[in-house]
Write a structure and sequence with these properties.
The complex is a heterotrimer of chains A (271), B (384) and C (153). Chain A has helices spanning 73-79, 116-128, 151-158, 205-217, 259-266, and strands spanning 4-13, 18-25, 39-44, 48-53, 64-69, 86-93, 106-112, 136-142, 164-169, 179-180, 197-202, 225-228, 244-245, 248-249, 256-258. Chain A is an alpha/beta fold. Chain A has two domains: 4-93, Translation factors (Elongation Factor Tu (Ef-tu), domain 3, Beta Barrel); 99-228, 3-Layer(aba) Sandwich (Rossmann fold). By secondary structure, chain B is an alpha+beta fold. The chains are: A alpha/beta (271), B alpha+beta (384), C alpha+beta (153).
Chain lengths: 271, 384, 153
C-alpha cells in the first residue's frame, strides 16, 4: 500500500513539544473511517514514515486529526509543515479499544503523557453514547502543568457531571492548584466499581505496569484491563518483523492488548 | 519388470534439453553454479554452468568445496544462498516520488512479472518457500509483490542424494524427499555405469514440460534405487533436533542461563539471518536526492540482530546480544509456530555452517533440554 | 453532632482499629481547618502533629533558592499528612500548605508517641498504617523520579 496524499488543513501546538494537526484528503473520499486506538503511518517527503495514533473523533469522519510529540527528525519535520503541505498517509492499522466490552460497566480511562492522544477518541465516542455506560472516569497524568494536552477540552470535561476528570502532574510550581503526584495516585480518588469495570490505559510502559498493579490492588481483574503497546514499526502490516513482542505483532495483533493475554511477556526483560 | 506408477526416467545426457524446453517457454533459468568458492544460485545459460562433479563439506563455521569422484550434477547440499533472494529480494524499490512545491506524487514500482524456473530446489528449500508463502500470502494482508513473483515460478526439485554436514531436515519434517509444491522432482542416480534421473510430476505445468522431453516410465528397480538413495540421505543427517514440545520448552526458558552462554560467543553479525531461507524481516529506507525533489522508498533485508531493529524513542528494546540471539532462536523455533502454524526452521543447517563462530542451533536447544532434564531429575530425587 | 471519635473512625487511616485504640486516638484529636495558602507546618519544625484529611487539598512543598517553591505531592480527602512525628528526629522535612480550603483531624503525635511507648499494641497499629503509607509514597516517588514522560536519548 503506497502512502495516500493528504494535506494539512491546520496545525496548532498543544504544548511546547507537542502539536496536533487536521488533515484533508487530496484525492478520493473526503471521509476517513477508523476505530479508537488505531494508528496511521505518516510520511513526510524525503524524510521518513512513522506510526502515529489517530487522536480525533471517529464520529466525525470528515476530519482526520493526529497529535504528535516532536522528538526526532520526522516528528519535527511534521511540526514544521505549513497549511496546505502534503504528507503521505497509510492506514488505519491496528486493533481498537474495546469500547463495546465496556457497555453497561464503569469505564476507567488512564492516560500518561502523550498516551492521552490515542485515548481521546474513546472519550469522544463514550460521551456520544454516554447513557450506555456506568461511571466514566478519565485519569490523566503528565510531567508538569505546561505539558497538559488538550487543556481547554479537559476543563470543559471537568465541568460535566457525567464524566469524572482527574488530572495530575509529576511536578509543579507554586501556581498550580491541581493534583501533584504520579497518575497511579488518582486511582484511589476515582469512582468505579472494580468488580464491574473496564480499564483502558495508555502511556509509557512502566506507567502502564504500575497502573495495572494499582488497579489489581483495588480489585480489578486483568481480563478487564486493556493497554496500548508500542514497538519499532516499519511496514505496519506484519511483514517487516520489527514490531514483534513475543509471538505478537504489535501492528496487527495490537497495539491494544488485553492485559492478561500479554502479562507474561511484560515481565521478560528485553523480549 | 513392472512399471513404477507415475514415475519416469530421464537420461543425464538429455539434461540440456530440460533447460532448452524451459527457455522455450520463456522461463529465466536460475540454479546452482560455482562462484567464489561456494555453490550459489544464479542465472544459468546452460547445463555446463552447473557445478558438475563438485560437493561440499560443511560443519559449524566451515564450508569447503571438494571435487567428487563422479560427474553428479547435484552432488552437494545447500550453499549460502537460498531461493529467498529471488522470491523476496534483498533490495527492492517500492516507489518513487517527485515533488513540486508543497505537493508530491508517488509512482509505485511495477510488479515483477518475469517467469523464472528454479532448478535444483531441495526439499528443505521447498519447505522454506512454503513457509514464506504462509507469511506473505496467507495472513490478513497479502504481500502482492511476493505473490506476483511466486506465481511465475516453475520448480524443478531435486531429492538430496547425500545429507550435508549440518543438515537436519528429517528432524524438522522437511525432507530429504520432496512431497509437494514442485512442478517436477528429480532424483539423480549414478549406478552401474548409468547416470539418469527419476522424475516425478507434481503439476500439469510439470507434465507439459516433461512431455517435450525424452522420457519413459520408470521400472520398479529404478524407483527402488531412488528410494534407497533418499533413505540413505535420511539416515546420515549431520545434526538432529528434538522438536518434542519445543515451543513450550523455549517459552519456559526465556531466562535460562544458556542464553548468556551463547551471547558470549555470538558476534551479532547477522549471517544466520541472511543465509536462513525463512528469515523474512525487512526494513524500509526513505531516501531523497540532494535537491529534495525526488524521493524513493526502498525495502531491504534486515536482521533482528541489529541494534536498530528494536529501536524506539531513546533506545533499543533488545540492547544486549543475549536478547537478540534469544529473539532469533525463539522466533525461529517457537513463536513462529504461534504466528504461522508451522516451525520457522527447515533444518537446512545454513545458520550452523555460516556462523563465523559455529553456533549450532541444534546444540543450543539440546543444552536447554538437557538442563531441564537434570533439574527435573534433581527435584524428583529430592522428593524421594 | 458527630463526635470526634465518629469522625476519626470514618477516616480510612482508622480502619480496623480496636475500639480502645479509636478512643485513644479520639482523645488526642481535634478538628482543624486550613484556609487557602495556610501553612500546616514548615520544613525543620518539630513534628508533633499529623493530619487525617477529610476534604480539601494540601500540597507538600520544598523551596530551593534557585528554583523557587516545588510542589512534590498533593493530598486530599481520605489521605494522611505527615509521618515525621513517628520517626526520629521528629522534624518535618517539607512544608505543607493548603491549596484548597481543607478540613482535617489533627492528631497529637507527640502524645501518641508517648502512649505507644507504654502500649506497644497501639504502637504496632500506628506503625503498621504509617508503613503502608510510606510504601505507597515511596513507590509513587520512585515513579516520579523516573521522569517517565521524558524522551530518554
Amino acid at each position: 500500500m503506497v502512502p495516500q496524499p493528504w494535506c494539512v488543513r491546520r496545525l496548532w501546538w498543544e504544548t511546547k513539544d507537542s502539536f496536533s494537526f487536521e488533515l484533508e484528503p487530496q484525492n478520493g473520499s473526503p471521509t476517513y473511517h477508523f476505530f479508537p486506538g488505531q494508528f496511521n503511518m505518516l510520511y513526510v517527503f524525503g524524510i521518513g514514515e512513522i506510526p502515529i495514533s489517530i487522536s480525533g473523533d471517529c464520529g466525525k469522519a470528515e476530519t482526520l486529526v493526529h497529535t504528535v510529540r516532536a522528538v526526532g527528525p520526522t516528528t519535527r519535520a511534521l511540526g514544521n509543515l505549513k497549511r496546505g503541505a502534503q504528507l503521505g498517509v497509510r492506514g488505519p492499522f491496528g486493533s481498537r479499544w474495546p469500547i463495546e466490552e465496556a457497555l453497561g460497566k464503569d469505564l476507567l480511562i488512564v492516560a500518561g503523557g502523550i498516551g492521552m492522544a490515542p485515548l481521546r477518541p474513546v472519550v469522544y465516542e463514550v460521551l456520544a453514547r454516554r447513557r450506555e455506560f456506568g461511571q466514566v472516569s478519565l485519569l490523566y497524568g503528565t510531567r508538569s502543568p505546561d505539558d497538559i494536552l488538550y487543556a481547554k477540552e479537559l476543563q470543559k470535561w471537568g465541568q460535566r457531571k457525567d464524566l469524572e476528570t482527574l488530572v495530575t502532574v509529576d511536578r509543579a510550581g507554586p501556581g498550580w492548584t491541581g493534583n501533584v503526584g504520579v497518575v497511579t495516585t488518582l486511582i484511589a480518588k476515582a469512582r468505579f466499581d472494580p468488580g464491574h469495570s473496564l480499564a483502558m490505559i495508555c502511556g509509557p510502559e512502566v506507567m502502564m505496569r504500575f497502573t495495572v498493579r494499582e488497579l489489581e490492588t483495588r480489585g480489578m481483574r486483568t481480563d478487564g484491563i486493556h493497554i496500548s503497546m508500542e514497538r519499532n514499526m516499519k511496514c505496519a502490516v506484519g511483514f517487516c518483523g520489527h514490531c514483534q513482542f513475543g509471538p505478537t505483532f504489535i501492528c496487527k495483533d495490537g497495539p491494544i492488548f488485553r492485559y492478561d493475554k500479554i502479562e507474561p511477556l511484560l515481565s521478560i526483560r528485553e523480549i | 519388470m513392472s512399471d513404477a506408477h507415475g514415475k519416469f526416467i530421464f537420461e543425464r545426457d538429455d539434461f540440456q534439453q530440460l533447460l532448452d524446453v524451459l527457455v522455450g517457454r520463456h522461463y529465466q533459468l536460475v540454479g546452482p553454479t560455482l562462484r567464489d568458492g561456494a555453490i550459489v544460485y544464479d542465472t544459468l545459460t546452460s547445463a555446463a554452468d552447473l557445478p558438475v562433479g563438485w560437493t561440499d563439506e560443511q560443519t559449524g563455521g566451515s564450508y569447503r568445496l571438494r571435487t567428487r569422484g563422479d560427474q553428479a550434477l547435484f552432488g552437494y547440499a545447500v550453499g549460502p544462498n537460498s531461493w529467498k533472494r529471488f522470491l523476496h529480494p534483498p533490495v527492492v524499490r517500492l516507489w518513487q516520488a517527485t515533488r513540486s512545491g508543497a505537493r508530491f506524487e508517488i509512482q509505485e514500482e511495477a510488479q515483477d512479472k518475469a517467469k523464472v524456473a528454479f532448478l535444483g530446489v531441495r526439499s528443505c528449500e521447498l519447505q522454506a518457500i512454503l513457509i514464506q508463502d504462509r507469511v506473505f500470502l496467507q495472513g490478513q494482508q497479502v504481500e502482492t509483490r511476493y505473490k506476483s513473483r511466486r506465481e511465475q515460478v516453475f520448480v524443478v526439485a531435486v531429492n538430496c542424494a547425500q545429507a550435508g554436514g549440518t543438515c537436519f531436515c528429517t528432524s524438522m519434517n522437511a525432507g530429504p524427499r520432496v512431497r509437494s509444491g514442485f512442478d517436477l522432482a528429480l532424483t539423480e542416480i549414478l549406478e552401474e555405469g548409468r547416470h539418469y534421473f527419476l522424475v516425478e510430476v507434481g503439476t500439469e505445468a510439470g507434465a507439459e514440460v516433461l512431455r517435450e522431453l525424452p522420457h519413459r516410465p520408470a521400472q520398479e528397480a529404478e524407483a527402488e534405487a531412488a528410494d534407497r538413495i533418499c533413505a540413505k540421505t535420511a539416515a546420515t543427517m549431520g545434526r538432529t533436533l528434538d522438536t518434542t514440545g519445543i515451543k513450550d520448552l523455549l517459552y519456559r526458558n526465556y531466562e535460562h542461563s544458556r542464553w548468556d552462554n551463547v551471547a558470549a560467543r555470538c558476534l551479532t553479525c547477522a549471517n544466520c539471518t541472511m543465509v536462513c531461507p525463512t528469515c523474512f524481516c525487512t526494513t524500509v529506507e526513505d531516501v531523497t536526492d540532494l535537491k529534495g525533489e525526488h524521493a524513493e522508498r526502498w525495502q531491504k533485508w534486515d536482521s533482528c540482530f541489529t541494534m536498530d531493529f528494536s529501536y524506539i524513542h531513546g533506545g533499543s528494546v533488545r540492547a544486549t546480544p543475549k536478547a537478540r540471539y534469544r529473539q532469533w532462536m525463539t522466533h525461529k523455533l517457537a513463536t513462529w509456530i504461534d504466528q504461522f502454524g508451522t516451525s520457522g526452521c527447515v533444518g537446512c543447517g545454513r545458520c550452523i555452517t555460516w556462523c563465523p563462530v559455529g553456533i549450532d542451533i541444534t546444540e543450543e536447544v539440546s543444552a536447554i533440554r538437557r538442563s531441564e532434564a537434570v533439574r527435573n531429575a534433581e527435584q524428583n530425587h529430592g522428593n524421594t | 453532632m458527630e463526635t470526634l471519635e465518629r469522625v476519626v473512625a470514618d477516616h480510612p487511616f482508622a480502619r480496623g482499629l480496636a475500639r480502645r485504640h479509636l478512643e485513644l486516638l479520639a482523645g488526642c484529636a481535634s478538628n482543624v481547618r486550613f484556609e487557602i495558602n495556610q501553612v500546616a507546618f514548615r520544613e525543620g519544625e518539630e513534628a508533633n502533629e499529623f493530619y487525617l484529611i477529610r476534604e480539601g487539598k494540601m500540597a507538600i512543598e520544598l523551596h530551593a533558592p534557585e528554583r523557587g517553591t516545588i510542589n512534590i505531592l498533593t493530598l486530599g480527602g481520605g489521605e494522611v499528612l505527615g509521618w515525621s512525628w513517628l520517626v526520629p528526629p521528629y522534624r518535618w522535612s517539607f512544608d505543607a500548605r493548603a491549596i484548597e480550603p481543607t478540613r482535617a483531624i489533627a492528631l497529637d503525635g507527640k502524645c501518641l508517641r508517648e502512649k505507644s511507648e507504654r502500649d506497644s499494641d497501639l504502637g504496632y497499629q500506628l506503625h503498621k498504617r504509617i508503613a503502608q503509607i510510606m510504601e505507597e509514597r515511596l513507590q509513587a516517588t520512585r515513579l516520579q523520579l523516573l521522569n517517565l514522560y521524558e524522551v530518554h536519548a
